[in-house]
Design brief:
This protein has ten helices and nine strands. With 289 residues, it is α/β, with parallel strands linked by helices. It has a six-stranded mixed beta sheet, sandwiched between helices. The chain has a three-stranded parallel beta sheet with strand order 7-8-9.
C-alpha cells in the first residue's frame, strides 16, 4: 500500500493509503490509525454510509482519542470502487446519490454493469483484512462498526462471517434493506429481483432477517446500536424496531439506544463513538465473555 498522507494524532499515527485492489479491479483508498506504542493491537473496521469516502469518518468522527486510550487500530475504507479501473476503463456509476460510486452497500454485485467492480463484501472480508494484518502490528483480532449504509454493512458482514469478528455495532443502520426504499433500489440493481433464487441473496444482506434466523446466537453476546430520534430517515429507511423485534424473536442480545434530539449527521457519531470503541475494546481484549 502507498501512503499518501501522514498525521500525528493523540500520540498515534494516522495514515491515508491507496492500493490496487485485485478484488475490485480498481485503486482503493482508506485511512488507518495506529495508537501509540509497539503493539500488536486489535483492529476496529469502520464502514461509512452513502456518498462517503474514507475521509468522512477520519475527519469528523473524533474517534482517535478513545482509540489511543484503548489501544485499538481503526481502519476506514472507501465505500465503493471508483474509476478509472486498473486497465484504464470506466467504473459503472449512477447519477443518483444512493446507487453506484459512493453507494457500494457492502455486497458483491452479480448484475451488469456493477458485477465487474462492485465486490465490496469480498474486498472487506478478504483483501482489506489480509492487507491490514500484513502491513500493521495487529493481533489478528478485529471488530466492525459503521453508519447508515455502513451500519448495514457492519451488521451483515459480521453476521455472515462470524469467525472474522469479535463484536459488532452500528450507528443508525439500514436495519432491513429488503423493506426500505434505499435497500430495495440497491439490492435490485446489484443482485437482481427479490424473487425465486434472488430471495436468498437479498435475505443474506438483511440484518433483521439474519438476526431473526439466529445468525448471531452464540456468537455475539450483545449488538450495540445507537439511533437518533430526530433522524430524518428513521421511519422510512432505517427502521431499528425491526432489529429489536428480530433479536427478541431469536433470543439475541441487542442494545438499541434511542438518543433524543440527535440526527443522522457525524455530530451524532462524534457524540457516542467513544462508547462504541470501549464496547469493542472490551470484547477484543476478552474482558467480556
Amino acid at each position: 500500500m502507498q501512503t499518501t498522507k501522514t498525521h500525528a494524532v493523540h500520540g498515534g499515527t494516522l495514515r491515508y493509503l491507496k492500493h490496487d485492489s485485485a478484488v475490485t479491479g480498481t485503486p482503493m483508498t482508506l485511512s488507518v490509525f495506529v495508537p501509540p506504542g509497539e503493539g500488536p493491537f486489535p483492529v476496529l473496521i469502520w464502514l461509512s454510509g452513502l456518498t462517503c469516502t474514507e475521509d468522512n469518518f477520519t475527519t469528523k468522527a473524533g474517534a482517535y482519542r478513545a482509540a489511543a486510550e484503548h489501544g485499538v487500530i481503526i481502519v476506514a475504507p472507501d465505500t465503493s470502487p471508483r474509476g478509472p479501473d486498473l486497465k484504464g476503463g470506466g467504473v459503472a456509476d449512477d447519477p443518483a446519490y444512493d446507487l453506484g460510486q459512493g453507494a457500494g452497500f457492502y455486497v458483491d454485485a452479480t448484475q451488469e454493469p456493477w458485477a465487474p467492480h462492485f465486490r465490496m463484501e469480498t474486498y472487506v472480508v478478504q483483501e482489506l483484512i489480509a492487507l491490514i494484518d500484513a502491513e500493521f502490528p495487529t493481533t489478528r483480532t478485529r471488530s466492525i462498526s459503521g453508519h447508515s449504509m455502513g451500519g448495514h454493512g457492519a451488521l451483515t458482514l459480521a453476521l455472515n462471517h462470524p469467525g472474522l469478528f469479535r463484536s459488532v455495532s452500528a450507528f443508525a443502520p439500514i436495519s432491513s434493506p429488503t423493506r426500505c426504499p434505499w435497500g430495495e433500489k440497491a439490492l435490485s440493481a446489484y443482485l437482481g429481483p427479490n424473487e425465486g433464487d434472488g430471495r436468498a441473496a437479498w435475505a443474506r444482506h438483511d440484518a433483521a432477517l439474519l438476526i431473526e434466523a439466529g445468525a448471531a446466537r452464540g456468537v455475539y453476546d450483545d449488538i450495540l446500536v445507537d439511533q437518533g430520534d430526530a433522524d430524518a430517515f428513521l421511519v422510512e429507511q432505517l427502521k431499528p424496531e425491526l432489529l429489536t423485534a428480530a433479536a427478541e424473536a431469536a433470543g439475541q442480545g441487542l442494545t438499541l439506544r434511542m438518543q433524543p434530539g440527535y440526527d443522522h449527521s457525524y455530530f451524532f457519531m462524534a457524540s457516542f463513538i467513544a462508547d462504541h470503541i470501549a464496547f469493542h475494546a472490551a470484547r477484543l481484549r476478552g474482558a467480556v465473555a
